[in-house]
Amino acid sequence: MSDELPRYFPLGEGKSYQLGRITLTFKTSATDTRSAYTLCEAVEPPDAGAGLHCHLSYDETHIICEGRYEARLGNKTLQLSAGDMFFAPRGTPHSIKCLGPEIGRELMISSPGGVFDAFIDEVVSSMTASGSPTGGPAVDFRAIAAKYGIEFLS
Questions:
Q1: Does 124 reside within a domain?
Q2: Which residues partner with 23 through β-bridges?
Q3: pLDDT tens per residue across span 87-137
Q4: 81-102 residues labelled b (16+ CB within 10 A) or e (exposed)
Q5: Mean pLDDT of the chain
Q6: Domain limits at 92?
Q7: Which residues pair with 15 in a beta bridge?
Q8: Residue 8 lies in a domain
Q9: What is the 3-state secondary structure (H, E, C) of 44-57?
Q10: What total of structural domains would you count in the chain?
Q11: Cβ atoms < 10 Å from Cβ of 68
Q12: Angle CA 93–16–12, to nearest 5
């Protein structure tokens, strides 16, 4: 057993990324959970979120902590608020958007761990290297996503 397990994760700790208007803070990594899962907190202003996509390499659970959201899960449209959650098994098209007027906060659990956080790290690193906060034409977001088994559908 690793000396690093078990671990305590104090409020406010984790590796944070700014992806456009969204702040993503990874509370756990694959290393922390023996690759079982990654836990990420997303803070999203109104009208921010993830467009319709699916991932072939991991499952994802979204737990709404604050705010109002609209999500698509397969063919269903969901209205979500604090305490609601949904599970998107790998291969299931889904999207999520904060409706506002307040800022939203959700927890995302991706399993197995390590894939989603590696994807976000590469996207943000590529955007930083391009010198543009949105990445611009120099960052091919969809090509990076494809490397991690993620396909954006809209």
A1: yes
A2: 18, 43
A3: 999 999 999 999 999 999 999 999 999 999 999 999 999 888 766 555 555
A4: eeebebebeeebebbbbbbeee
A5: 90
A6: 15-152
A7: 26
A8: no
A9: ECCCCEEEEEEECC
A10: 1
A11: 18
A12: 110
Residue 67: what residue type? G
Query: Would you say 109 and 25 are in contact if contact means Cβ atoms under 8 Å apart?
Result: no
Phi, psi of 2 (to 5 degrees): -70, 145
CATH number of the CATH domain containing 142: 2.60.120.10
Joined tokens for residue 82: 């604090």
- Determine the Cα–Cα distance for residues 114 and 56; give it in Å rounded to an integer: 14
Note whether residue 110 is domain-resident: yes
Is the pLDDT at 5 greater than 70? The verdict is no
Closest by CA to 19, choosing from 146, 116, 147, 101, is 116
Is residue 10 in some structural domain?
Answer: no
Phi, psi of 68 (to 5 degrees): -120, 135
- In the structure encoding, which two tokens stand for residue 136, read together? 């611009």
Whole-model pTM over 0.85: yes
Cis ω for the linkage preceding 101 (within 30 of 0): yes
